[in-house]
Amino acid sequence: MRIDFIADAACVWSFITWRQLRAAMRDFAADFDIAVFFPRAQAAVSRSKLNPADRARMLAETARPMLAQAGCDVDFDALPRLPDDLSPLYRMMQSAFSCRKGCAVLDAVFSSFFERGENIGDIAVINRIARENGVPAKLQTDRPATPRPDPTANEILQAVPCLIFDRRTIIFGAQTDVCLKNMISLALNLEKEPDFQQI
In 3D, which of 132, 131, 128, 138 has the Cα closest to residue 98? Predict the structure, then answer.
C-alpha cells in the first residue's frame, strides 16, 4: 500500500499523526510504501507570521491530551526558534526517503525537535540526523525531484497533516491509531473490489 503523508516537520499535529500512523502500521502484514511531501515553504510562511516553535506553543493546551494518547511528551517551552527556510532539512528528508531510510529519519527529526528541543533548521543537526541514519552525503546535497501527490496541486488543500491511502482515501488531522487502523483496513479492502478500480 502506498501512503502519502503531507506533513510539516515543525507541526505538533504532524508529529502526533506520524506517531499514530507508525503505531497503526505495526498491526498489518501489508507492505507500506511511504512518501512524505511538505507544504511549499513560501505558502507556509505567508499563512502565518508565527515562528513554527511559537505556533506549536500556542497549540500546547489543545495538543497535550492527544500527545498523551500517542504516548508522547513535549516540553513546549524548550522548543527553539526555527529559521523560516527549512528547505535544507526537507531536502535531506526527501533524500532519506529516496534511499528507503525515510521513516527512521522522520522519526529522528520529530524526536529531535519535539522531544529534545533541538533546532532542526541547524545544518549541524540536519547532518547529524542524516549521518546517524545512514543517508549518504551526496544524496543530502542533491535536490531530488520528488513529485507531489495530485491533491496538493489544488490550492484548496491547506490542512496538514494529511494522509492519502493508495491515492484514494484521504484523511486530515491527528487521528488515533485505532482510526488509522480502520482507514488502512478500508483501503486494503477497497483494493479487492473490482468496481472500485474503475472509479
Answer: 138
